Amino acid sequence: MKLLVVDDSSTMRRIIKNTLGRLGHKDILEAEHGVEAWQILSQNPDVDVLITDWNMPEMNGLELVQKVRAEAKYVDMPIIMVTTEGGKTEVITALKAGVNNYIVKPFTPQVLKEKLEDVLN
């Protein structure tokens, strides 16, 4: 299974990648913002799961989710939003845009594991 982790914080990308690695996932791509993520998706049509931050330069996570959901081939791709934006309005906005699950930073490895299992089942 191939995962794409998108966050402008290299530290957060490393934390998520390390957690995913401990969960047995080895095929992990990463991007610093939505524009880079879109390029990676275009070159890697076999990406199975997208894990993205909301607040990023170039193209934010919400814009990325909307762009991904507009493509027929990605309509069923599981997307998890990982962000500091934990208000009810933000969660509803993300879910309406097509996010399958939502994680508020900071989070534990157990939370990431549970949310990932949830979108894969």
Keywords:
Rossmann fold, five-stranded parallel beta sheet, 5 helices, 19% strand
Per-chain topology:
Elements: E1 2-6, H1 10-22, E2 27-31, H2 34-43, E3 49-52, H3 61-69, E4 79-83, H4 88-97, E5 101-104, H5 109-120
Briefly characterize the structure:
With 121 residues, the protein is an alpha/beta fold. The protein has 5 helices and 5 strands.
Model description:
It holds the Pfam family Response_reg. Residues 2-120 form the Response regulatory domain. This is Chemotaxis response regulator CheY. The chain is α/β, with parallel strands linked by helices. It has a single domain (2-120), classed as Rossmann fold. It is 45% helix and 19% strand. It contains 5 helices and 5 strands, in the order βαβαβαβαβα. A 5-stranded parallel beta sheet has the order 2-1-3-4-5, sandwiched between helices. β4, α4 (88-97) and β5 (101-104) form a beta-alpha-beta unit.
